[in-house]
Amino acid sequence: MVVTLHRENSLVRFLRWAYAGVDRTIFMALKFTFPSRFVSPLGFLGMLTFVIFIILGITGALLMLWYEPILDRAWDSVQNINDTIPYGFHMRNIHYHASNAMVMMAILHMYYQYFSGRYKIRNEILWVTGVILGVLTILEAFTGYDIIFSERAELAISIAASLTNSIPILGPQMRDAFFGSGFHDFVLRFYAFHVFLLPIAMLGLMVVHFPRFLVFDVPMVMAITGAIMLTGGVFPVEMGLKFDPNVPPGITVPEWYLTGLYAFLRTQYDKFVTGVAWPGLFIFSLLIIPFVDKYKKFSWKDRPLITAVGITSLAQIIVTTYWGFYIDPNRTKSLLERLVIDPIFFYIVMLLLVPLSFGFTYMMIKLAKNAEANAKLQPRKPGGKTAINFPKKWIYIVFVVLLAFQVYLNISAYYAVLNGMKNYSLFIIGIIMLVFAGMFHIYRHGTTMARAPPPKPTTPPTTAKPMPSAPKTVPPVPKPTTTEPLTAPPVQKASSSAQVATETSGTAAAAAAAATPQTGASASSNSKTGDTTNVLAERSSTTEVHKK
Amino acid sequence: MTQQAPPGSGGKVSRRDFLKLMAAAGTVMTFAPFVDWGKFLPNPAANVSERAKVELPDGSQANIKTFQVNHSEAIIYPKADDPSLNKEAFRTWQFIRLPEELGGNKNDASAFRVYSMVCLHLWCLWKYWPEEGRKRGECPCHGSMYDPLTGMAFAGPASLQSPPSNVLPVLDLEVDNDGSIWIKPPNWSVNGNGIVGFGRYIT
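The joint structure predicted for all components is written out below.
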């Protein structure tokens, strides 16, 4: 953010005074960075997850004003919110889609951290709390869609309770303790879990989970918020049928983040094994990953086994998620026949995915290393090229795809208008926020360009490309990458001049960014990607200083 | 830990270790009374100490002289004052007079059965089908079938579940001199009357 305050009026003085007071609080331990140019969002997916958590908190608190967690009123109160309360529809849709986005972000965040190996540098606590937070996030989302108490919610509750029951020895007592007895208790207790117990546990864990360096990228936050609203406009969430125990429910599948588990349950194998032991094993193996991973390097290319395990888990998640959704469309078959997944077939596929994923990983690493070697052989191109250089053919393809998407959006918007404009306005707000995000980005880019000194031909591109792993863009620095992260925690990096400037005051940061855009940019990306790029960023900043 | 090796006193506990043990035991005992507070969590409302009427949907008490053979009704137990609580699936029970071949003609409580209507598979509400060739409890959701004599699932997904989740919870009945049918106070445990939505062991 480029904000320059010239005059020292009373408001500025008050802000300065408040800022100095904040110095005494724990917030000073956090280093917030507002990047002054585009940085890959992969590095701050966690922050985006947190932003979505806040959105969920706000919309959820507002929904609490109207929702009634009572057996025969829950569904009707949601219907009331959806249909009669002004903007209730908006709140509910934002809340719903944000919950999906939060689960998705958390999963992406985890896998990015996994493949980039960032849990290695004394980040084990962050990793472990992160995995627990992820589980709580899914539980939070799960309790959320249960308290609507639609047909699907009832099925989900019954599955959850029967899984709790299936735990040996303590299961029935646990069910009694956490669920109470009967649907009336279930709805009320799930509500208590959803609005208080789980969020408070999550907040507590977040205190431990937050790293000291945080990136708050305004355009990206705006884009995510806009995307949530846009999705709410295009795919407004349905009410579902009110649960009536005398009416046989249709086939319903859970939300997408639980269909993987559902696929296991649908094999009709023992409930405890399929529904508790397998997911428990999966979560446990995620928890111990940092303690098992003994590779000295970070990049996924240098940790073949860990990468292969990660790819396997991804492949299995994708396959089971799809399988959980898939229901035999042949209606002449009996319900059970359509629902049950043949366990032998299912588990054979699961097992087959292991060698396939390992082979895939092997191939990817081979290709990546080849590409790296080729890039090294060829002479480095002179600087001054743009960050994005597509071949012309691809530009046309992207353009056509975007056009098709726009046509699709227009049709959806048209249907939304037919449905009474509610989701149309949500859609429009989403578009507005996305456009704002784009404008902000372009403005920021423009100001950076305007202040940039003439391009130096020798400047290597640091983290300009939004590639999946940061180390990939960094030419391998043989010695420092291995030793640096172990010896130097990110705390010391704050001593680099640009970094300090960014933290201490906005004006100074703006000035610093204006003076040396390259330094400012690398400093922001520095805190983003943590430690592997630190070396390079620091080096580039020092060289800049030299040149002056 | 002790700085010096304890004197070779042949398995005797040192004074320091003994005190540590006492402190640990004291801490445990201080917090032991709170364990019972865990009873705050389960719902005690289901505990009934007196016998209750078998109240048919029309409001009358079921009578052995008027209730037909091979017939069933849905009843609410335990009945609450709050009508919304009475809609609770976990309070709905299937009151069955067995068909003739299973002893439904007898004029005592053995001709009747009361099973929880909550299917042990996924908690839909099953019901009794008196038609010739069926005469069994069937769940509309995934086709679990229950034997009216014992409450055991013999077909469908519920029958594949391991005990106690394949036998329906049951209520014990008694008949007074007028022929009115009463429900005896239940014992909600897997070895007694069973747990609704979970099942019981056949004793």
